[in-house]
Design a protein that fits this description.
Ferritin, elongated, mainly alpha, about 70% helix, about 0% strand, binds fe (ii) ion
Length: about 160
Amino acid sequence: MGKKAREIVEVDLKELIKDLDRAYCDEWLAYYAYWYMAQTVEGKYYEDMAEFLNNIAKDELEHAQELAERIIELGGLPTNTPSNLEKNANASYPGVMKKLSNYDEIIKLVTDAEAGAIEVYNKIARKTFGKDHDTYQLAVHIMGEEITHEEMFENLKN
Ligand SMILES: [Fe+2]
Ligand SMILES: [Fe+2]
């Protein structure tokens, strides 16, 4: 990121980079859990569930990429080793279902993780509103997709 672009950011850069890196780690953990569940899910509707999980996993990976780009623009670097992803994240690893055909458990894991993500991006949006337009826009964009994810899985509840 250019000097001017960094100058116009009116929040503490170090703190902002840390916030974005925490979200970046959350995204990788969510991506891994969703992707893993998509590969392993069993039961009567496993194809549909795998498709849902794969779709949102893809979005989380895209979020990680968008966050990495912004972190680098701000002069930082995202977490560079998998063993630190959980350490640097806001939330612990969402986990995966214990019973491979337990759709209720999958739905709970996903909706809980999405609720956490919505909170994280809401916080970043509040912090950057009127102070860092670029990060603000990114946070609102990602939050919109997390809201869609929560909604998608809430609708799967019996
Ligand atoms: Fe995400
Ligand atoms: Fe999500």
